[in-house]
Design brief:
The protein is an alpha/beta fold. The chain has two domains: about 80 residues; about 290 residues, Zn peptidases (Aminopeptidase), CATH 3.40.630. The protein is about 40% helix and about 15% strand. It has ten helices and ten strands. The strands form three sheets. Strands 1-2-4-3-5-8 form a six-stranded mixed β-sheet, sandwiched between helices. A two-stranded parallel ribbon has the order 6-7. The radius of gyration is 25 Å and the shape is globular.
């Protein structure tokens, strides 16, 4: 095939770009392979063994949303924000509380941290996180004259808080052997683009030793919609996401999978689909904490991603479902009862007497296979680099002729 000089130059550039992309992809694969060896290993669990023990009160959670909305707009520094924090502290009497105040942009925010630490705590900590502030504007509302006014935030804000409050009421009855912390973040939804200020401030002011014992950091956001639909969210811990799937299946939240009672599941959790979301989990994730975000980004029946009543004045109490709140509340409860978020002991320790030599050899073999994969990927990267150098040299020579 004959090409004129302009077409030939374009083809050369496209060839170089293609080779570069191949190299970048290979490098990304290597990074993921290396990170895989550093991921937490959660102990195996049988969620269905605890199905009949679930007692989460979805009706009370729904009532909590109405109460929060009736307080007024929960903006940082407002009376409504203060009254919400005080009420949480007054009603959860078996928890210890701490407030952390930070200055961000042109306002002060207050994160509220609740801690339940049983006497026999192993030291591992599970964090449940929800932002308690409501959006300070409605930039997506159809009515332009109301776009600079704060919204109710019944789903985006109050729903996550309601679930954590009701979960906190029953956690002391679960006979857990680890610490649970609730992080109510402030300032997540403030600014032209939501600044997630509270979680950033929390992460920035924690030392590595403060974070080392956190086995799971689970954010819940916008989880009250009548038409629930969750996907995998990145960035986040893939190992922690894998613990969510059996819980969702057991509760009948995965289409095509039977629940613990043998009933067909609904199309609510679709872990095979992935969406990128910047939320309160990101700051913890960037500090190396196993963190994920359970969020429904389709607000309203049939809504597309980030559409519907999200960031509008239609985010009201009538759009929230007690049944939906119960689905997420029960999922978190089931995860706690089944110890799904407890990290196994360091595998570098002496092999327990109940672990056979064959099991140990299997683990060694798995480690070797991971190492072998990394070596192969490294070779592929070197090959890509040589290919780019060769092509670049060829193009230079051609241009000199």
């Amino acid at each position: 095939m004959l090409m004129d000089r302009t077409t030939e130059k374009v083809f050369k550039k496209q060839l170089l770009v293609f080779a570069s992309i191949l190299c970048i992809i290979s490098h990304s694969t290597l990074v993921l392979a290396l990170e895989d060896g550093q991921k937490p290993k959660y102990q195996s669990s049988e969620p269905c063994d605890y199905y009949d023990d679930l007692i989460f009160n979805s009706t009370a959670a729904n009532s909590s949303i109405k109460w929060q909305v009736d307080l007024g707009h929960r903006l940082p520094g407002s009376n409504a924000s203060y009254n919400l924090r005080e009420s949480i502290k007054e009603n959860l009497t078996e928890w210890q509380f701490r407030e952390e105040v930070h200055s961000r942009e042109d306002f002060n925010l207050t994160n509220l941290i609740a801690t339940y630490q049983p006497e026999n705590s192993s030291g591992q900590e599970i964090f449940f996180v929800a932002h308690y502030d409501s959006r300070d504007r409605a930039e997506r509302d159809d009515n332009e004259s109301m776009r600079d006014m704060p919204i109710d935030g019944a789903n985006d804000g109050a729903s996550g808080v309601a679930v954590l409050i009701e979960l906190a009421k029953i956690i002391p009855t679960m006979n857990l052997n680890h610490t649970v912390r609730l992080l109510f973040t402030d300032g997540e939804d403030q600014g032209v683009r939501p600044g997630i200020y509270g979680s950033k401030a929390w992460a920035e002011n924690k030392s590595d030793s403060d974070l080392n014992n956190i086995s799971a950091f689970i954010v819940i956001d916008m989880i009250g919609d009548y038409d629930l639909h969750f996907t995998h969210v990145w960035p986040g811990s893939s190992e922690l996401w894998l613990t969510i799937l059996p819980l969702a299946e057991g509760l009948g939240l995965v289409e095509g999978e039977a629940d613990c009672k043998g009933n067909d599941g609904e199309d609510i959790f679709d872990i095979e689909t992935s969406n990128g979301v910047i939320d309160d989990h990101v700051a913890a994730h960037e500090r190396g904490v196993p963190a994920i975000d359970i969020i429904d980004i389709q607000s309203g029946e049939g809504a597309e991603n980030w559409k519907g009543y999200w960031h509008t004045h239609n985010d009201t109490i009538d759009k929230v479902s007690a049944e939906s709140l119960g689905k997420i509340g029960r999922l978190l409860e089931l995860g706690l009862r089944s110890s799904s978020w407890i990290i196994e002991n360091d595998t570098s320790q002496e092999i327990p007497s109940n672990l056979s030599k064959d099991d140990s050899n299997t683990e060694d073999s798995s480690s070797f296979e991971t190492y072998e994969s990394v070596v192969l990927i490294s070779i592929a990267i070197i090959f890509c680099l040589f290919t780019i150098i060769f092509i670049f040299g060829y193009l230079v020579k051609k241009d000199l002729k």
